[in-house]
Amino acid sequence: MPDLSEEEYDALDGGKKNASLVSVNGGTLVMRVGSTLRNAADSGVFVVGGRFTMSGGTISGNTADWGGGV
């Protein structure tokens, strides 16, 4: 999983690997127009004690026993 602390991405594709695309643990993730999280064999975004704000973009094609998107 990439370190997103200083980076901006247009798209993250999980290739159906068994992991969340992004884990937020005590931090903040802001997803904006034009960004895409797709194809994780787990959650697109996994949040524990953090904050996720989605003001645009797409989360699709993710599968999980619980959730799938977020």
Helices and strands, with pairings:
Layout (H helix, E strand, L loop, with lengths): L10 E3 L8 E4 L2 E4 L4 E3 L6 E4 L2 E4 L3 E3 L10
Parallel strand pairs: 1-4, 2-5, 3-6, 4-7
Overall description:
The chain has about 70 residues and is mainly beta. It has a domain at about 10-60. It is about 0% helix and about 35% strand. It is built from no helices and seven strands. It has a three-stranded parallel sheet with strand order 1-4-7, with no helix packed on it. The protein is globular, with a radius of gyration of 11 Å. The mean pLDDT is about 80.
Largest sheet: 3 strands, parallel
Strand content: 35-45%
Number of strands: 7
Q: How much helix is in the residues?
A: under 10%
> How many angstroms separate the termini?
16 Å
Compute the number of helices: 0
Strand order of the largest sheet: 1-4-7
- Radius of gyration (Å): 11 Å
Sheet/helix structural class: mainly beta
Low-confidence stretches: none
Q: Shape from CA axes?
A: globular
- What string, H for helix and E for strand, traces the elements in order? EEEEEEE
Overall pLDDT level:
81
